[in-house]
C-alpha cells in the first residue's frame, strides 16, 4: 500500500521537482561531510590532462556518488533512461551541474548512441551504467562497447564505497551513502574496443570490463568492511 501511495505521489510534477532538489542536496551533503580517498586517479588524470575524452563506466548500484567523482570543468554527460525513475535521476544530477542524454538499452538506444558519439567526438566525456537501467546486475550490455568501438575513445571503469550507508535490496543492490562517512573512489585502467573487433574478441572485452568493474567494487567494499555485492548469474544475448 505504501509503495502504491508513493508512486501516486511521485506522479505529481511539483512533488517530483522537490524530491529531485532534496536528493541533490542530500548527495551534496554526503560529499561535503565525508572524508574521501582517491585510488587509481592517475588513470583518469592522464586521459583528462591529454584532452582525451572517455566513457566513464560504473555499476548502477554505485550511481549515487558518481556525479561527485567528476570534479573537472570540462562538460560531462550521463546516459539515463527516459522512464520515470530515470527522469528522477536526470533531474537530480541536473542540480549537480551534470546534463543528460536520454536513452536506454530498450528505448531510444540508437538515437542516444548517435548523440553520445557526437558528444565524445566534440571532446566531452560521458558516463554510463553498463548494467542499467534494469540489469542484470553487474553484467555489461553491448551498448557501452559499441559506443567505444564507434567513437574510438577508451572506457575507464570506476567504483566507490562508503563506511556509513545502506545497501538496498533492489535488483542492483543500490548503495545509499550516509553523511559524515569515510569513502573511496577508485578508477581502473582504460579499455579500448577496436573498430574492427570480431565477435569473440568483443565478448572477451565484455568479460574484461565486467571483471575490472567488479574488482573495483569489491576493493571498495573491502576497504569499507562491507560484504561484496555479487553479480547476477551470467546470461546470454544481452541487449545493446
Number of helical regions:
7
Strand tally, please?
9
Number of domains: 1
Shape: globular
Q: Low-confidence segments, ≥5 residues, pLDDT <50? A: none
- Overall radius of gyration: 17 Å
Helix content: 40-55%
Mean model confidence by pLDDT: 88
Structural class: alpha/beta
What distance separates the N and C termini?
35 Å
Textual characterization of the structure:
Helices cover 41% and strands 17% of the residues. The protein has helices spanning 2-10, 13-33, 41-49, 84-94, 109-121, 142-151, 199-223; strands at 35-39, 55-57, 76-80, 99-102, 125-128, 155-162, 165-167, 175-177, 182-187. The model has no long low-confidence stretch (mean pLDDT 88). It has one domain (37-223). By secondary structure, the chain is α/β, with parallel strands linked by helices.
Amino acid at each position: 500500500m505504501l509503495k502504491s501511495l508513493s508512486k501516486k505521489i511521485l506522479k505529481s510534477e511539483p512533488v517530483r521537482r522537490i524530491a529531485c532538489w532534496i536528493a541533490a542536496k542530500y548527495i551534496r551533503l554526503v560529499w561535503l561531510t565525508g572524508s574521501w580517498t582517491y585510488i587509481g586517479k592517475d588513470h583518469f588524470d592522464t586521459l583528462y590532462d591529454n584532452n582525451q575524452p572517455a566513457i566513464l563506466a560504473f555499476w548502477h548500484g554505485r550511481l549515487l556518488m558518481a556525479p561527485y567523482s567528476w570534479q573537472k570543468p570540462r562538460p560531462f554527460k550521463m546516459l539515463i533512461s527516459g522512464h520515470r525513475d530515470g527522469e528522477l535521476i536526470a533531474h537530480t544530477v541536473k542540480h549537480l551541474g551534470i546534463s543528460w542524454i536520454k536513452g536506454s538499452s530498450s528505448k531510444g538506444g540508437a538515437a542516444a548512441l548517435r548523440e553520445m558519439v557526437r558528444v565524445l567526438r566534440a571532446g566531452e566525456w560521458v558516463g554510463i551504467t553498463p548494467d542499467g537501467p534494469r540489469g542484470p546486475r553487474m553484467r555489461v550490455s553491448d551498448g557501452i562497447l559499441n559506443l567505444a568501438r564507434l567513437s574510438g575513445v577508451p572506457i575507464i571503469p570506476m567504483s566507490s564505497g562508503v563506511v556509513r550507508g545502506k545497501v538496498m535490496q533492489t535488483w542492483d543492490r543500490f548503495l545509499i551513502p550516509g553523511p559524515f562517512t569515510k569513502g573511496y573512489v577508485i578508477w581502473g585502467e582504460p579499455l579500448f574496443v577496436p573498430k574492427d573487433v570480431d565477435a569473440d574478441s568483443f565478448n572477451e572485452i565484455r568479460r574484461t570490463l565486467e571483471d575490472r568493474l567488479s574488482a573495483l567494487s569489491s576493493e571498495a567494499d573491502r576497504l569499507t568492511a562491507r560484504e561484496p555485492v555479487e553479480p547476477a548469474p551470467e546470461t546470454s544475448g544481452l541487449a545493446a
